[in-house]
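Hi there,

I know you've been waiting on this one. I reran it after we fixed the sequence typo, so this is the corrected version. Both the input and the resulting structure follow.
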Amino acid sequence: VKQTPKALEEAKQWYLKKLQADEQNYEETPCSESRRNLSMSYARLGNFAWAKKTPEGVEEAEQWFLKQLPLEKQKYEENQSYENSRSLSIAYNRLGDLAKSKKTREGVALAEEWFLKKLKIDDQNFQNNPNYISRRDLAIAYSRIGDIECTKTDSEALIRAEKCHLKAFELYNQNHGEK
């Protein structure tokens, strides 16, 4: 399917209609399935906005992703399953990537906060269920933190960055060995 501006706008309009249905469904029947559907609608609309690659698109994406976050937290608080914790980790990662993309000091600081939250969840998931996906998620978290450390100017930052990147590399290599 060719991604023309017209096709993207039509898709966005479809997702906005789906969002209305998901919001109504969640309001009428606030259960885990309706919460998941609403969360996914927010994420998709955030991805559409972010794909614009404009400052306005980034701000719009952030609004959608921040709407998604409480739903993901609620899912996790109700049931700290691997799936729910991973879903929350992905939400943190998305917010971290978005904040980092702003390329401001404040954005990088906020990205670090999101990535540290991701790291905490991913480390717990890996400890509880060491598998290919949990190892990959943990590697991504270490890589993101390492990238943030590379932006800092204190003398120890590059050492911390190297440790994070080496840990990510080690985890990636372990996964490669499992294939």
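Quick highlight: The two ends are 31 Å apart (CA to CA).

Best,
R. S.
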